[in-house]
Design a protein that fits this description.
Elements: E1 3-14, E2 17-28, E3 32-36, H1 43-50, E4 58-63, E5 66-67, H2 75-80, E6 82-85, H3 97-107, H4 113-126, H5 142-154, E7 160-164, H6 172-187, E8 191-195, H7 199-205, E9 208-213, E10 216-221, H8 223-228, H9 233-243
Parallel strand pairs: 3-8, 3-9, 6-7, 7-8
Antiparallel strand pairs: 1-2, 1-4, 4-5, 9-10
Length: 247
């Protein structure tokens, strides 16, 4: 498989607190990688380091053979290859749905408004939100906002989509809608890295599952390996706790 992103010995500290400790992994073209683990294990920080919303303290992030952390590297261009979907949607409240999906295309990619509008509507159709193009975010439910956020990210034609616990802020009845859309994207061959606490979803869509614990990758493997036959005691304990919660 062709690696799109290669991460080598990545570390991230906040002051004296070492949150990520020597993480190495690849993301291959067309692969769906899910990252699971307890709260505070470093999952979201790791994702934010991949697209440089957080600056790593040490290590390398290789994209197409170049270290994006090297001095003088064109970071804005690198970021255009990555789509990001956040827990809290991060839509522009002063813009309607269509404008939210057009603004980055026009300002960052330099597309003409007519082309940006066409692409935005196509992606809003994909997520079932094309009927809401004139609505403002305040008029939408959480699940609808997240679907718009996915359409907005897709409209930038990313090579890799990053999802940071995209269902954690949603009411339970809205979770299924968002997961169904993500499953369709996975089936379409889009490269995805997903931080999630939805274990059944991770088991179903992943090519590879990564279990993080205390800032390291404690175990990784196929969904069958991780969910069916985990090797590490920490993985077993986490999965038992999540899949069989105490009453």
């Amino acid at each position: 498989m062709n690696s799109i992103i290669e991460i080598e010995r990545l570390k991230k500290s906040f002051g004296d607190n070492l949150v990520l400790k020597d993480i190495s992994m690849n993301v291959n073209k067309g692969e769906v990688v899910t990252i699971i683990g307890a709260s505070g294990s470093g999952k979201s920080t790791f994702l934010r380091c991949i697209n440089l919303l957080e600056t790593p303290t040490d290590g390398k992030i290789m994209y197409q053979g170049e270290n994006v952390l090297a001095p003088g590297y064109n970071l804005p261009k690198y970021r255009t290859h990555l789509g990001m979907v956040f827990q809290s949607f991060n839509l522009f409240n002063n813009m309607n749905v269509l404008q939210n999906c057009m603004s980055g295309q026009v300002t960052v990619l330099g597309r003409k408004e007519e082309e940006a509008k066409k692409i935005a509507i196509e992606n809003l159709e994909k997520v079932g939100m094309d009927r809401f193009i004139d609505a403002k975010p305040a008029q939408l439910s959480g699940g609808q906002k997240q679907r718009v956020a996915i359409a907005r990210a897709l409209s930038m034609d990313p090579e890799v989509m990053l999802f940071d616990e995209p269902t954690s802020a949603l009411d339970p009845e809205m979770v299924g809608d968002v997961l169904r859309i993500m499953k369709k994207l996975a089936e379409s061959g889009l490269t995805m890295v997903i931080v999630t606490h939805e274990m059944a979803f991770a088991k179903e869509v992943s090519d590879r599952v990564i279990f993080m614990d205390q800032g390291v990758i404690a175990e990784e493997g196929s969904p069958e390996d991780i969910f069916g036959n985990p090797k590490e005691a920490r993985t077993k304990e986490f999965l038992h706790r999540v899949l069989h919660p105490e009453p």
